[in-house]
Amino acid sequence: MQKLAEICVRRPVFAAVLILVLVVVGAFGFSRLGVDRFPQVENPTVTVATTYPGSPPEAVETEITDKIEAAVNTVSGVDELRSTSSEGRSSVTVQFNLSKDADIATQEVRDKVSQVQGQLPQDIDPPTVRKQDPDSAPIIGIALSSNDPVRTVTEYADKILRPQLENADGVGELLISGGRLRQINILPDPYKMRGYGVTVNDLITTLQTQNVEIPGGQVETGPETLTLRTEGRITKVSDFNKLVVKSRTISAATATGTAATDTATSAVGGYVRLGDVATVVDGEEDKTTAALFNGKQTVLLYIRKQSGVNTLATIENIKGRIEAAKKTLPAGYEMQVVRDQSQYIDAAVHAVEEHLVIGSILAILVVLIFLLNWRATIISAFSIPASIIATFGLMWAFGYTLNIITLLALTLAIGIVIDDAIVVIENIYRVMNERDLNAFDAAIEGTREIGLAVLATTLSLVAVFAPVAFMDGLTGRLLASFGITMSFAIMVSLLVSFTLAPSLGARWLGAKKGKDGKEHKTAHTSPKFFLYIEHHYVQLLDWSLGRRWLIMVICGLTLAATPTLYSMAPFNFLPEDDESQFQISARAPEGTSIERTTDIGNRMTQAIGKIPGVQYTLLTLNGFGPTASTNNADVFVRLKDIDQRKDSQNDIMRKVRGMLGKQFAADNLRVRVSPLSALPGFGAGSGGRGVQYVLSGPDLNVLRTAADKMLAQARQIPGVADADTNFVAAQPELVAHIDRDQAGDLGVNPQNVSTALRYLAGGDQVSTYNEGGEQYEVHIRAPGGFRKDSKGLSLWTVSSSAGTPINMDQVVGFTRAFGPTSIQRLNRQRQIQLQLNTNPDASAGTILAQLDKNFAALNLPAGYVGGATGSSKEQNRAASAFFLALCLSLVFMYLILAAQFESWIYPITILVSLPLTVPFALLSVVMFGQSLNIYSALGILLLFGVVKKNAILQVDHTNQLRARGLDRHTAMLEANRDRLKPILMTTIAFVAGMLPLVVSSGTGSGTNRAIGTVVFGGQTLSLLLTLVATPVIYSLLDDAMNWWAKMRGTEADTTPMVNTPTNTPLHERPL
What is the bridge-based pairing of β-strands 296-305 and 140-145? Predict the structure, then answer.
């Protein structure tokens, strides 16, 4: 690198072109970088969804879930296997190790499911195997409101708006919620059916076989071939009435218009048609879901983006389509964006960009204050835009996006990328004045003298961040771009410091003509405050070297405070952040109708809307997901922007939690007030901060008892809020018991009974109807009065093997009971999960530790397991991954330093000082009310890198002076005096770059403060001690080396290889 610096000093255009190439590529790459909230993290997860209409959870578990689990569990690389069996639905989620390719995993799961499909019930819908897409979360939600019927609004959304919005660039899929589409409903009359001798099974068969269109092959007509098509489909809704059910046999009672009470019939002739025994209604779906925007009935349109596309650009495209669609809306229709990811992304990214600019300006001002020279300041400042812009090109080449993680890395890199240039320029300045060299020679000699130290500091700094890119778990995948981006910027800054900095320094720092027309060498001046600091620092260092063991005692006491400070700092996965939005999940008692749940939800939104700071509410009932039900109400709460309200998001959430507990106590709701999920890969509602703890084992009753005990104990743990479990109390059921003996005597197949009840009570789809290029579902269902209780269901008839109708009550008895709403399993074992929200000042790590103790105290039998899951499990993984990354960083730093100093001992001098920063970092966390999380852990790694750079400058220059013949004590004083200025400049410039993060108060400020506080406080507080401790440790190790040499009877080599200056004029040396 020193050779490169000499070439660039002699060939300034070459140096400029070298950097300009990187800058141009970076500018080109920047224009093509996508913008998103987080890096794209692919978590290889596959979901198998199966529909078994009308089946209870136990049957779904036994007949479907268990068989699919057994099959997919044999696929290699399975990390976790989860399933949910609910009424009519089975969902099996297979999470693989991160090393598993998601596409290969999906195909392997699909193959395994295909192998067992023959073992599944014949009347199920085929299982759907789908890879979980990290971009599957909706990026925007639109509310379409009107006073028109819900069906009319839904059809407008589906037929008119869907094509317009789905054609926008980047849009992947549009989902409609809260609406009711057109549906053809067949409502049979049990009295007429009994009178005509028609059964429910006859109606089902008729609709399935007489409304079809089957290809008929081809017809040869000599010179041409015609395709034969049989038009067997219904073309008008009224034509359903004409479908023939069976030959007509009508009872006398029916003929006279009275209800039939027996099965005696008399032949009248002709045929029984569907219209004779049922009413055909061109209607809509049953009300199983609803949505209200600020209390007004609405239809929601959620839009997902295509995988990997630019989120902000896609949302902008969608908003353009929305504005166009608003111009053609029918009278009385309103269309409004109610959920918008771009609001947070745009605000957070803009805030980080602002911090980047402000931090750069502050860092440059620090350099100017210390150097008191505009030219030197400008040369140093060039490294910031050059390094940052060039890094954009490398980010584009690696497929990264501009997001919170990469922009945070660039913001933190500001104070680092200017470091190398500062050190080089300051040393050129010093050499030029102290050795009376011209600027040309001083540029080469100064860079040569400091080159090895700069190279070592930069490479060892890369060694700090590179292991972050190889951390395990989702956290490692998320932060990989942080480590790589930071390393990119640092390596570019190294190139700038060895090319552009000495090249410009050789020309801009030279002699200037004064008023007398003579050239005057630029004075190497320092501000008075620095001269004062320098004088007292040398005195303090001299005093400390005479009392080395006292300094070591102070260092020991400082390190001894680490466990205490660690115990005082909360330990969470993510920091608190104000996103101006949160959500409420409320579950009414099992069996609550959707009308009752809608009323409760509406009253909730009205009460929440009155709280100051709330902008609007969005209520959704029976939304998406395998456990959704009509007694589920989810409320999305949008707050006013941070600068437009007095209370923080946490304060408003606390008010909502208290209000719901008081005003809705009589409704027996299970309520959770949670931040939205902050990271990809974690479920909504956890926000990455809640605590999830799972109990699994063979017996559900044992698990329920254990979970109830742990739930009661969890509610007593300080900092816990909204403690609950995912166990749902048994819902009321009406159980149909088939009398198999009687059914056998009458020739009734139990499957006919089950099928009839499934359609009558469940209203399942039986056929389809096509009109105008659209397809609509046809459902058969008993009218409300004939399916609300056992008496109404007993009126129906089923077919016997002889084709005669048999009364339902002859073969079926009904009893009321209770059954599970859903059955959750983990790794093929029943499971119950504790779900705990936490207060802002709570420590998730402490809560998890207490839950582990509580579980151990239960002394459950073998086979029962308890442990963290979800984001809590990832929190534990992240802690282990960070510890491994730290160990690897230390190993790499040691090896790089050993290579630099050509010594196995001197690197220890530098590395021993690193732990001294930890207590000060923890102290700053406690003082500023922050927590230890993944971002503050990054801050500690960054702190190690900065402190280590300072120590390298101190030790390297000490060795250089000793190699020139100075005794150790004089060399240490002189070296630390010489390096004090660049150390203070780089440290204060770095801290100044952190200042915008520390004082940030807008969107994303929680993340910024988490990492900024650790670095700002830790570096500021530890600076003085490390400036003194490093020379003291150096001298002690040097003494130890001398003692060991004497013990061995040899002379210690305490002068590592260094770059010694030469008196040959630099411009005369050959390249």
Answer: antiparallel
d(Cα 866, Cα 621) in Å, to the nearest integer? 32
User: Over 60: is that where the pLDDT of 267 sits?
Assistant: no
Between residues 150 and 352, which one has the greater pLDDT? 150
The pLDDT tens digits for 637-665 are 999 988 888 888 889 999 999 898 888 88
- Whether residue 574 is contained in a domain is answered as no
Tell me, rounded to whole angstroms, the distance of Cα 849 from its chain centroid.
24
Domain extent at residue 853: 581-731+823-870
CA-CA distance, 816 to 443, in Å (whole number)?
Answer: 92
302 vs 137: CA distance, rounded Å: 9
Contact between 848 and 868 (Cβ < 8 Å): yes
Please, which residues have CB within 8 angstroms of residue 238's CB and are 6 or more apart in sequence?
Answer: 280
Maximum Cα–Cα distance across the chain: 133
942: Cβ contacts below 8 Å, ≥ 6 apart: 412, 464, 465, 1011, 1015
Residue 1052's pLDDT band, with cuts at 50, 70 and 90, is low
- What pairs with residue 807 in β-bridges? 797
Same domain for 116 and 175, yes or no, is: no
Which residue do the tokens 């390297």 mark?
956
Residue closest to 174 by CA, chosen among 154, 194, 189: 154
Q: How far apart are the first and last CA of the chain?
A: 13
* Torsion (CA) 786, 787, 789, 793 in degrees, nearest 10: 70
Output the six-digit token pair for 349.
Answer: 């990214």
Note whether 175 and 138 are within 8 A (CB): yes
Percent of the chain with pLDDT over 90: 21
d(CA 384, CA 19): 12
- CA dist., res. 939 & res. 793, Å (int): 67
Q: Which H helix or E strand runs over 984?
A: helix 968-998
Left, alpha or beta for 39 (phi > 0: left; psi -120 to 50: alpha)? Answer: beta
Residue 434: predicted pLDDT = 76
What are phi and psi for residue 763, nearest 5 degrees?
Answer: 65, 45
Measured at the CA of 893, the angle between CA 891 and CA 898, to 5 degrees, comes to 95
**841 and 862 assigned to the same domain:** yes
- Asked if the model's pLDDT at residue 403 lies above 90, the reply is no
C-alpha distance from residue 1028 to each of 691, 858, 1023 (Å): 43, 53, 9
Would you call 179 helix, strand, or coil by DSSP? coil
Which CATH number covers residue 156? 3.30.70.1320
Residue 937 lies in a domain: yes
In angstroms, rounded to a whole number, what is the distance separating the alpha carbons of residues 456 and 423? Answer: 13
For residue 389, give both structure tokens.
Answer: 């812009």
CB 939 within 8 A of CB 1018: yes
Q: DSSP code of 591?
A: T
Q: Which residues of 668-691 are buried (b: 16+ CB within 10 A; e: fewer)?
A: ebbbbbbbbbbbbbbeebbbbbbb
Same domain? For 604 and 694 the reply is yes
Give the model confidence (pLDDT) of 754-784 as tens digits: 888 888 887 888 899 998 888 899 999 888 7
Residues 67 and 153 in one domain: no
Helix (H) or strand (E) holding 647: none
**What tokens were used for 220?**
């040869």
Q: How many residues does the chain have?
A: 1071
Residue 238's identity, in one-letter code, is: S
**Mean pLDDT score of the chain, rounded to an integer?**
83
Question: DSSP per residue over 293-342, as a string?
Answer: ETTEEEEEEEEEEPTTS-HHHHHHHHHHHHHHHHTTPPTT-EEEEEEEHH
Q: Parallel, antiparallel, or unpaired for β 290-293 and 128-131?
A: unpaired
Q: Is the pTM of this model over 0.70?
A: yes
Handedness of CA 525, 530, 532, 538 (dihedral sign): negative
List the beta strands (DSSP E) in 627-771: 632-639, 670-675, 691-697, 720-725, 731-738, 765-771
CATH code of 256's domain: 3.30.2090.10
Domain count, the chain: 5
Radius of gyration of the chain measured on its C-alpha atoms:
37
